[in-house]
Specification:
This protein has 225 residues and is α/β, with parallel strands linked by helices. It has 7 helices and 9 strands.
């Protein structure tokens, strides 16, 4: 299976291209997927699960709606590192909508890594333990689906919680959260982001995401090639 490093090389020639997308969860009570597609969006990432005991109540509505609108779509998992093993949470994610197939319309699942209110910073893990947890999730996801998950993070969290680890550069596509006019400095040794979450507001619901390449590149990501 080709890795995201191959994808990275394929995007170099299309550095100026971009494809609009967005991400949503139950926090958006309604989403107009058809209008988003008609406005130019071509992909959406939908929250599927959290920890090993929560299924987003909107996932089973939003996922088929996105498909019917013609969008390339995928699921994401809001990680609770340390509550259970990374492998356990990967299995839970896959069992509840986060899997992948090479049908050309399914993005690799996305592992959402950030802090959460009411929980200790970095989920109480050391930097070494956090990298190990992420690797366990990533490896289990790949062993079961054939592709590595995308990793969603922001520079501050990645630096604080992993020590700015570069352990995932050659395997996992980066989804970078930074609400600014440019992606800025990329953490973790990735040469650039595969997807940039550039705003927490999108006209048709959720957050705005920008794929770093053209539509053909987005389809290659969905094909796992």
């Amino acid at each position: 299976m080709k890795t995201s490093f191959v994808l990275a090389i394929s995007l170099i020639g299309a550095a100026q291209a971009a494809v609009q997308g967005f991400d949503v969860s139950h926090w958006q009570s309604s989403v107009n997927f058809a209008a988003a597609y008609n406005s130019g969006a071509r992909f959406v990432i939908i929250k599927a699960t959290e920890s090993n005991n929560y299924i987003d109540p909107k996932f089973n509505t939003y996922y088929p709606a996105a498909t019917n609108a013609g969008l390339i779509r995928g699921g994401y998992h809001f990680a609770h590192p340390g509550e259970t093993t990374g492998a356990v949470q990967a299995d839970y994610f896959i069992a509840h909508g986060g899997g992948w197939s090479s049908d050309g319309i399914t993005l690799p699942g996305m592992l959402d890594l950030e802090n959460a209110s009411g929980y200790p910073a970095c989920w109480g893990l050391s930097q070494t333990a956090m990298v190990s947890w992420i690797k366990a999730f990533s490896d289990r996801y790949r062993s079961r689906t054939g592709v590595y998950p995308m990793i969603y993070t922001n520079p501050s969290w990645w630096t604080s919680c992993t020590g700015n680890s570069n352990a995932f550069v050659s395997t996992n596509p980066l989804v970078l959260a930074r609400y600014a006019s440019s992606p800025g400095t990329i953490p973790g040794g990735w040469p650039y982001q595969t997807i940039w979450q550039n705003s927490d507001s999108y006209t048709y619901g959720g957050d705005s995401d920008i794929f770093n390449g053209d539509l053909a590149g987005l389809k290659r990501l969905a094909k796992g090639s």
